[in-house]
Design goal:
6-stranded mixed β-sheet; alpha+beta; single chain; 8 helices; Deoxyribonuclease I, Chain A; about 20% helix
Length: about 240
């Protein structure tokens, strides 16, 4: 299975072709416009199922499948954790996708990674070995010291206890907070680079042929400050 995750920085209808050229089976797009504005039939060819959630018609989370998989929002969805979205992805097999896009919040504990931490507590009984956590976490271990609880390391440890790991760190054999490949260039400045986007999945989904590619600055910065994560060879 090939999965791509990308924060497109809005207007996906104008910049989706380079991503779609990779022919993903599953595509998670943060800051994506609503389906009516996106015009899926014209701009997302061969899309078999889609789901979108957002308050702003120009800027939400879009999830698309291309291999006869059907997306269904889990009945347990809690809007308190609005953009930690649990979806059933049903095809040859069935998996649970948490599509993620975190953001700031007036209450610090509920900002960014705090939204993921809260969602993990709420959805704990739902999480299993077929769970994926994919998207723009806006988080990194380097900011752990700013939070007493529910920080990035707490999220990583919570998932690790359930045999769920970061694909990038597993494949690259790099430590959290010491990533060599950025996924975000703040304000599109090359010197303001951070690793903020992730795919967490069960270890048993990683095969010898599994690989991950992070988009290069020179190729993608004209489209967005985030680089796409292109992941393939994932066991269904």
């Amino acid at each position: 299975m090939k999965i791509i995750s990308w924060n497109c920085n809005m207007a996906f209808r104008k910049k989706g072709d380079p991503v779609l050229a990779y022919k993903p089976d599953l595509l998670v797009v943060s800051e994506c416009e609503q389906p009516e504005k996106l015009n899926i039939d014209a701009n997302i060819p061969n899309c078999s199922s889609h789901f979108w959630l957002g308050d702003n018609p120009h800027k939400g989370v879009g999830i698309f499948t291309f291999s006869d998989q059907v997306l269904t929002l889990q009945p347990e969805y809690n809007p308190e954790f609005k953009y930690v979205i649990p979806l059933c992805v049903k095809g040859k097999t069935e998996l649970l996708l948490f599509a993620i896009w975190t953001m700031s919040h007036p209450i610090r504990a509920k900002s960014y990674v705090g939204q993921i931490w809260g969602a993990l507590q709420y959805y704990e009984k739902l999480i299993n070995e077929d769970s994926f956590f994919i998207g723009d976490f806006n988080s990194n271990l380097i900011w752990d010291h700013e939070r007493k609880g529910g920080n990035h390391s707490h999220v990583v440890d919570f998932l690790s206890e359930r045999n769920i790991v970061s694909l990038y760190h597993t494949i690259r054999n790099e430590k959290q907070g010491e990533e060599k490949e950025p996924t975000l260039y703040l304000l599109k400045k090359k010197y303001k680079s951070y690793h903020m986007d992730y795919c967490f999945l069960s270890k048993n989904k990683i095969q010898k042929e599994t690989k991950i590619e992070i988009g290069k600055y020179e190729d993608w910065i004209k489209y967005s400050d985030h680089m796409p994560m292109i992941m393939e060879g994932i066991k269904e």
